[in-house]
Amino acid sequence: MAIEIKQLLIKSSVADDTHQEDSSRAQVSTEAIKYEVLEECRRLIQEMLNDKGQR
């Protein structure tokens, strides 16, 4: 079984960018979420590869 991952695309938009503090906080939150999603993808792929190797 071949596993091919080409691209993970995350789109977001900011409705009101009047406060710089809110904007920077939103950026940190976006980066944290992106990191969590990528880590979960890595974990799932590793789990799939381990299951395949045990068969």
Order of helices and strands: H
Major sheet size, sense and barrel closure: none
Beta strand %: under 5%
Distance between the termini: 12 Å
User: How large is the radius of gyration?
Assistant: 17 Å
Q: Please mark out the parts with pLDDT under 50 across 5 or more consecutive residues, or reply none.
A: none
Average pLDDT, rounded to a whole number, is 76
Q: Could you tell me the number of beta strands?
A: 0
Overall body shape: elongated
Summing up helix and strand content along with how strands pair, one would put the structural category as mainly alpha
In short:
The chain is 64% helix and 0% strand. It is mainly α.
Task: Describe it.
The protein has 55 residues and is mainly alpha-helical. It has a domain at 24-55. Helices cover 64% and strands 0% of the residues. It has 1 helix and no strands. The longest helix is centred in the C-terminal third of the chain and has 35 residues, at 20-54. The radius of gyration is 17 Å and the shape is elongated. The model has no long low-confidence stretch (mean pLDDT 76).
Please supply descriptive tags for the structure shown above.
1 helix, mainly alpha, 0% strand, single chain, 55 residues
